[in-house]
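Let's do one together. I've listed all components of the complex below, 742 residues spread over two lines.
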Amino acid sequence: MNMRIAACITVLASLSLSPPVMAKTITVAAGANAQEQLQEALIMAESGDVIALAAGRYVLSDGLSLDVNKVTVQGAGAKDTILDFTGQQGAGEGLLVTSDDVVLRDFAVENSKGDGIKSKGADRIVYHHLRVEWTGGPKETNGAYGIYPVESQDVLIDSVIVRGASDAGIYVGQSRNIIVRDSIAIENVAGIEIENSFDADVHDNIATRNTGGILVFDLPNLPQTGGHNVRIFENIVTDNMTPNFAPKGNIVANVPTGTGIMVMANKNVHVFDNVIGDNGTTNVMVVGYRFPQNDARYDPYPSGVALWDNQHLRAGWDPKFPGGTQIAAALGGNFPSVFWDGAGGADKAPLVADSVMALSLGLTVLGADPSTAKPEPLKPATTRPAALPAIVIPASMEAAVQ
Amino acid sequence: MRLFLSALALLSAAVSGTAAQQTAVSQAAILSEGAPATLSSFGFFNGSVDRPAPELIPYALRTPLFSDYAEKQRFIFLPKNAAITVEAGEGRLAFPVGTAIIKSFGYSDAKGSYKPIETRVLLHQTQGWIALPYVWRADGIEADLRMGGTRVSVSFKTPSGTAQDIHYAVPNKNQCKQCHASAGVIAPIGPRLANMEFAKTADKKRLLSSAIMPAGNIIQWPKWDDPKSGPLADRATAYLRINCGHCHNTSGSASNSGLYFDGMDHGPANAGINKRPVAAGRGAGDFDFVIKPGDPARSILIYRMKSLDPGVAMPELGRSTVHVEGVRLLEEWIKVMKAG
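Okay, and this is what the predicted structure of the assembly comes out as:
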C-alpha cells in the first residue's frame, strides 16, 4: 500500500515537471544472466524510474554502475535482495553511482573486491536500509570502504549496517551537508569516517567492535581540504577492540586498536551526549596530522574541538598509541579516557567538559617524537562553544526514507 | 547445412566486398539517438572488420592505452563538407557533429589472422558524444550492441611469448563514460596529433585536408617503448598520461584522489612523488607513497600495476593481465628518480 502511494506521488511529482515523463518501475530478478540484465536496467533507466530488485541472490562478475539522475534502486530487503560480488573479476567497487538524486534502499552488497557502494559527484544521494558486508568478518583482503559517498553535496545515510571493511565501514569524503544516522558499523577498521568534509551530523549510530569507532579526519593534497563543522552526538561507541587489520600503507593503519572517537586536523568538531567506552586505547583522541607534507592550503592542526555530556565507560587499559604504555604506567596504569596530542599549543586545545581524566601529551610540534611527551592534565572546560547548526537536507531526501 | 550456410556467408561477404565502393557509411545512423542494435547499421565495415569502408581514415597511436595486449584498429569517419579544428599545444582534434571514431579490439590467432572481439564507437551527435560497445558474433560478420558489457574468454600469447587465458572485459556503456568523461561530458581521448601516427601519408592528408590548423608546431610525444624517441622520463610520463591521465585529472573520475597524471604541473605531491595514499584503501598495500623515488618496489604505483585483484589493480577497467613491459618502463624510471 505504502509502495503504491509512493508510486503515485512519484508520478505526480514527475507530471509537475517538464518534460512530463511517466515514471515506471523496471523489475529485475536474480538469475543466470543477472550481471548483464541488471547493468542494462541501470543504463536504460530514465529519470524518475524505480529499478525494483526482486528477492534473491544476484551472482555478479563485475562492478555495476548507475549514471542516470533521479533513479531509485530498491530491493526487497537487506536480508532478501543480495548483490553477491564474491566472484567479481573487475571494477573498483560493487556499485558505482555518478548521478544526482539517487535513492538506494533495501538491498545488500556482499564481498565486493573493492569498495561496496561508491557514489562520486552524486548530489542528494540517499542510502537507506542497506547492508554492506564482507561475510568472512575482518580480513585485510576485504574491500576498503563499505558505503562511500565522495565529492557530493547533500548526503543521507540512514539505517544501514556495514561489516568487515578493511578501511572505513561508512566513509564520507570531500562532501558537504551530510547526515549519518541510525546506522550500525561493526568489525571494520574505522566504523564511521568523515574526511575532508564540511557540515556533518553523525548521530544515533552504533559503532562497535571496529578498530576505531568514529573518525573525523582532514588530510593534505586532496581537492577539498579544510574539513570543519562536524557534530557527533547520541551515538554508542563501544568495544572498538578489533585488532587493526588494514594494510600497512593505509592511512587508517595508524588508528590504534581500541579507539572510540578520533579527530585528526579537523576544525569545529562537537562531541556530545554519546555513550563511549570499553575502548582499550582511549575513548576520544584529538591529534594533528603528523606526517611531513607541503600542501600550502592545508592546516594540520585540529581546533575548535569540544566534548560535553558524554557518558564514559572504561577506557585506556591497553593503549596501542606509541608511548602509550609508558604514559599509562606514569599515570598509575591507565591511559586517560580523553587525550590530545598537544598539536599547536594551548590555543588549539579541545574543550573537555566530560567528567573524566583528559590529558595533553604536550607534543606541540608536529614532528615531535612521542617519547618526548610531557603529559599534563587538561583543565576541565567551563565554557561551551557556540552550537553548530543542525544539518538540514532537502525535503525530497527526507521523504525518500519515510 | 552449416557448411552450406557458411559458404553462403562467404559468398555474400565476397559480393559485398566487390560492391565496396557502393556501400556508404550511414550518416543518419551516426546521428540517430536510438542506438542501433547492430554494428552493420552504420556501414563502417563491408561485411567484416578487415574491410573498412573507404571513407574511414585509419590511424594509430605512438603511446597507446594498454588493454590486455589486445590489438586495436582505429578509424575516424568525418562527415562530408565539415572541417575539424586542431587545437594548439598537443594538437587535440575538435571534430564536427556527425563524426564517428571506431575502435576495434581483438587478437591474432595462431595463423596470424585478426579476430575482433568488440568494436567501440564514439558518435558525435547534436547533443554531444555518445559511446557504444558492440560485440562481434562468432561468424565475424556482425556485431551486437551490448549496453551492459560482457566478458569473453580469450587465449593469446603476449609479445614475450607468455600464454594467457583471460576473461576479456567488454565495458558497459557507463564504463565507457567512466574513462571518456571530463566533468561529466563524454569526449574522445586518443585523437591528439602529438600522439597520432599514420601508416600512409595520404591518410593524414585526408584527415587534415580542410582542417583549421593552429599557429606553431605540434611536438610529437615519444613512443613509450622506443628509447630513440625520447628520454626515459618523457616516455614514462607519456605512458602514465595515456594509461592513467584520462581518470587521474582534476575533472576525471579519479579527481577525488588528488593524484594527477594529466601532463599538467600540479606539483610533486599531486604527481604522486612522496604522496601518501589518502583514500586508496587497501590499494596502498603495505606501502606509504604512490611513488617513492629510487624504490619502485615500495611504490604503490608499481604495486597496483602489478596486481590483478580488482580491489587493488590499476587501471580499474580493462585489465586482466599485467602489462609487463609497461611496468618495467615505470620501474626503471622510478629507480633512477632522485629523491626530493
